[in-house]
Amino acid sequence: MATRRIGIHCSTAGALQNAGLKALELGANCLQIFSGSPRTWAAPDPEPKNVAKMAELRKANDLTPLVIHANYLINLCSADATNRPKSVTAFRGEVRRGLTIGAEFLVVHPGSAKDHPSREAAIEAFAEGLVEACAGLTSPVFSILLENTAGHGNLLGGDIADLRAIRDAVGNRLGLPIGYCLDTCHSYAAGYEITAEKGLKQFLANVAHISVLSRACESPGCSSASISIGV
Ligand SMILES: [Zn+2]
User: Fold this and answer.
1) Are 75 and 87 in contact (CB under 8 A)?
2) pLDDT at residue 52 tops 50
């Protein structure tokens, strides 16, 4: 089994397994997908025959991990009376589909704090939304990954300490492991000088501070390589 994992985001257009085929064609040994349209609230259940084909393809080609990126409409820290329940329901759908297709990770952005009086309140709201969305759903091998962001405006996650704060706020209320997905592009945009040795070392020290670095791989991110940190 390969120890270095390099993948890319692939389209599931036509059928779930098409993403796996594309990843293999490109020489990748892991991949990221959207489990539905990234810009619509609802998504159909995966077709069992396609789930089986994808599992077969992955097993035969050591294509792992399979990462899902949650859709872009979801804002689990929203306080809006319409957006919040929609986000919770949509994220629950993401988790259910992830469990159905046997994915290992589900990446989600921490959302926008614009509805809240403080970042702390937004972090608390995100944690509550996450717990509500995942209620009753359990797996030891399917992890939620909190992704850092560029942090512009009211976005949480520009400071990677936000990710740890969310995880602490969730505590042990989730039946799924929680980890982090570090997008290098977002990190740089947020002000971490990771293109220089000194800045990269500082960034990695911050990463070590928020989590025990139990696993590092170059897993597929939104727009760049990411570091996936296990729990
Ligand atoms: Zn992302």
Assistant:
1) yes
2) yes
